[in-house]
## 1
Amino acid sequence: MNESGIGPPRIRKIQTLLGILFLAVTGWKVAGSVPDLPKFVLVLAPHTSNWDLPFILAVMYGLGLKINWFGKKELFPWPIGGVFKRLGGIPIDRSSRYNVVQQTAQTIREREQIVMGIAPEGTRSQSGHWRTGFYYIANLAQVPIVFGYLDYARKVGGLGPVMHTTGNIEADMKVIREFYSGITAKYPHKVGGIIVSQRAWHQNSRNDNG
């Protein structure tokens, strides 16, 4: 048990059963286990297809894990906004003086339990490289990063290692890159490179310094 005595957020048993059923019908398996942590950033990768969403949700449901995700507040109008929130959506105000990284980190700090799922590739189209916001969110919120994945070659999805950020993004991204190098996406040619762009480095370094 972790020092706080609080475990990760969990879903209802019926949701877990639905996730397991979906995976069984589609021939997928779940690997790994949920870390005994009340809060962490969950990397969702690789992301190259519309199919990634139902499969990653089924995998997390199969593990009994409740995840949250963020979206611009315009995606949450009544009544559909209520549905999105029930599915884990959290509105983000992009017009705020605080950027998305700061808003998300603040949300994590304010919650007793939360698993924030983030797809670093951002879109299903080839983006060239991962966005590093997930790293800075974890660093600012002072929570670990857990590697979530979908391997279409083996039809296995699950959770990998827990990583605590060191502040040395180059070294930490190397660890992440080594893990995901063995994972096959739905469309491998669309996978973004796991690198640190100079623009991202300077921009997020300013955010980290306030």
## 2
Amino acid sequence: MKERRLYARSFVFALLALALASGCGTLKRLAYEAPGRDAAQQPDRVVAALALPPGALVADLGAGGGYFTFRLANAVGPDGRVYAVDIDPDMLGYLRDRVRAEKRENVEVIEAASDDPRLPESGVDLIFLCNTYHHLSDRVAYFSALHDRLRHRGRIAIVEYRSGRHGTPMHVIREELREAGYRLADEHDFLADQTFQIFVPSLD
């Protein structure tokens, strides 16, 4: 089982490297939705653990091809909304096409800047990141600026590989979020290769 997870993870990284080098949107999407990802990622269990109420507003930062976006949209229902945030033009185009094709009225695609996810001023209930944290630069400043984009009792959920070039150690995430003004509220340990931590503003 461990060998299978390692193979799947290596396959994803190899495909993603090829996609980035070629600039191919289809390859990028396949990298994010590679065979075997569901078994390791357990997306339905991750979404269930978030305990999102109907009508919740969620930002999916680094949405990619929408691997979590549309599951989150199902969880919040028609009265909720998911903001699919990314900086990659190919992924943004794919997401917009899929939203139109599936008539997803509760999904809005947002083109972010590298230092600003451009979330609505009205705020969201949850900011969700999966395998995105390590891509961000000056993370303390980035998350410090997001306080104003969290509604009352808002949360930040971070799923991240534990180590390696595509990961960030758990203690680093905790320390940086602490510096940005958040505290750990919950964590889950059912993902074999990733940490799953939930933070809230320190004053809440």
